[in-house]
Amino acid sequence: MFHEAGSNQVLIGGQGALWLLTFTGSAVIQKKIPLKADEKAEKDCKKRATLGEDDCENTIRLIKKLDYRIMVCGTNAGSPKCWFLVNQTLQQDKEGHVVTLSADNIVPPLLSQEAVAVAIEGNLYSAVSGKKGMIQRSYGTKKGIKTEDSWLAKSEFVGAALLPEDDQRKDEIFFFYNDVNESAGLDKEPYRAHLGRVCKVDQGGKPILTDSWSTFLKARLVCGHPNEPMRFHRLRGAFVFRKEEKGEAVLYGVFSSTWGSSAVCSYSMKRVSSLFKTSGFKGFSGSLPNPRPGTCVPPESTHLLPSRTLSFIKEHPELDVVIYPDEERPLYVLQNNDTYTHVVVDQVRDASNVSYDVLYLGTAKGKIHKVLRSKDQTVIIAEISPFKEQEPISSMILDASTSHLFADTKAEVTRLPLADCDPYSENCWKCVLARDPYCGWDMDGRKCSAVSQDESHTGRLLQSLDSTNTTYVCEAAEAKLAQEALKKVSVDPTSYIYLPCPLRSHHAIYTWVKDDKTYPCAMDEQSCTLRFGESTPMDQGVFKCTAKEEGFQEEITAFKVTLNAGRVSEVSLIAVGAGIVFLTITILLL
Questions:
Q1: Which of 161, 192, 407, 505 is least buried, going by the fewest C-beta atoms within 10 A?
Q2: pLDDT at 555
């Protein structure tokens, strides 16, 4: 999936085609761009008995924008190939032929192999999974270079990201991947997460690494505590999020364990970058050459790198450090029978202009968890099920400029608003207890409304993201609403009346109160009903029904009961609902 920030369109790579989807309100306009496999490649593929039927199609594996063109690469029946899109049309040469490019070093030929890429300044940096993984600068104006065969084992690539520095000559590119050990025993991890890192300015190193990276380094990545047994070793998804306020970058990763649970961990990229610049090297204990192996050297100085530095990189690319998460623990552990597959992050300001990270986590069952990260805890605030079928999330893209999240599976695509406050609009209590930083209770409009992300917003909405401090947030709003909605009832003292209190949550504790005196109520599926009768004599005054849940108390309804001097022909049973007195059996004679 590909999406440009600010646009209402997405490009979806399919089998034999590229789909352009335009979202207009509740409708979606579709445009199909056929990209069939070459006839010769398809015939050759079908002759190979080891390949499946899908491998002999053209499945789109990569969509990236390079300058004014969008590069689209597919498997092309085992002979990878790229096309270029200009203004939503396949680019052609002067003779009218569609422009194509061999993509053997950009995407893998088989569907079972993963590929990732990042486009930077018109150049494509890609990584291809396989028995011998490879990280390379595979297309663009700069020289194409790659990793040495000995640097990567069988690799499973998950993502890639640029880490810019104030001095662009020191920009770093990180690749996130797993080393796969298919022969690992029961007591060993079959997957080990790693970070691979190169310098953007790298042009290779003559004479030892002429066509290879002269700055490649790698290190282990673990989600868990160094001294505790519960660790998560397999990286499933990675997202580098740059905070706008301070320019800090954070790596959010979703991991799985061999026993089937998932976890989310965060890593300060400033700390990660520092470890790459200061840590020792695995299998080496002597003095390091100068300049230090892996240092980002300006292109004009590359030829000055001494042979000792280049030889060292070739033989010892791995650091001896294991990178653990911030605070040396996972942010969140998912204990059910689902697995996180993707993560994207947004930064949102609440009604008090305090910034929070909100994580959107895609699962193997097609669900999306909306997770709030605060200084005290990381907690799921919503589980979204946007798809008809329980297929794994294939990809997610978050557009903060339009406040939308795009997500897809192999069969469905959806666009979701980041600020979806309608489900909480029943009352202030429900809105506040959602603890959604995008939403707050509007006292004047009496609804749950989106918090403006404009820097000038004044924070006039009621909101509390602290689970220990929600008791009095809605007090003013509920008092105002209760006063206006106070139901007045005038009945004979010998009548039996029922006062209903609708249930809004089956987890709350409901209580009827008048003048600090508590009254019992009869519970059913819909109401906590106060029933006057022989055991509960009639009285007059204001009766209030309140509900308490997770330390938060809300007034649900209130009745002002007045006893009049009227006469009745016999004992009455009066049920009060919606402010109207309904008589059963008898008629009041006034």
A1: 505
A2: 78
515-527 pLDDT, tens digit per residue, is 989 998 888 878 8
Residue 54 structure tokens: 């899908």
Straight-line distance from the first to the last Cα atom of the chain, in angstroms, rounded to the nearest whole number: 74
Q: Which two tokens stand for residue 494?
A: 């010998």
Name residues of the chain where pLDDT drops below 50.
567-573, 578-590
Give DSSP secondary structure letters for 218-258.
EEEE-EE-TTSS-EE-EEEEEEEEE-TTT--EEEEEEEE-T
Domain that holds residue 513: 485-589
CA distance 440 to 423: 12
Is there a contact between 88 and 31 (Cβ–Cβ < 8 Å)? yes
Tell me the per-residue pLDDT of 338-348, one tens digit each, with 9 for 90 and over. Answer: 899 999 999 99
Which residue bears the tokens 């660790």? Answer: 231
Tally of domains in the chain: 1
For residues 330 and 263, the answer to whether their CB atoms sit within 8 Å is yes
With respect to residue 308, please indicate whether it lies within any of the assigned structural domains.
no
Q: What is the CATH number of the domain that holds 497?
A: 2.60.40.10
Specify the 3-state DSSP secondary structure of 515: coil
Q: Examine residue 537 and state whether it is found in any structural domain, yes or no.
A: yes
pLDDT of 374 reads: 86
**Beta partners for residue 334, in sequence order:** 262
3-state percent breakdown (helix, strand, coil) of the chain, nearest 5: 10, 45, 45
Query: Which residue is associated with the tokens 């397999």?
Result: 234
Q: What is the pLDDT of residue 323?
A: 97
- Assigned domain for 564 exists: yes
- Return d(Cα 472, Cα 149) in angstroms, integer: 63
| Mode of pairing for the β-strands spanning 318-323 and 217-221 | parallel
State the Cα–Cα distance between residues 20 and 32, nearest whole angstrom.
Answer: 6
Residue 579 lies in a domain: yes
CA-to-CA separations, 193 to 158, 164, 249, 578, in angstroms, rounded: 10, 23, 20, 60
**How many angstroms separate the CA atoms of 163 and 172, rounded?**
5
Helix (H, G, I), strand (E, B) or coil at 484: helix
What is the structure's pLDDT at 576? Answer: 60
User: Please, are residues 501 and 529 in contact by the beta-carbon 8 Å criterion?
Assistant: yes
Residue 128 bridge partners (DSSP): 115, 134
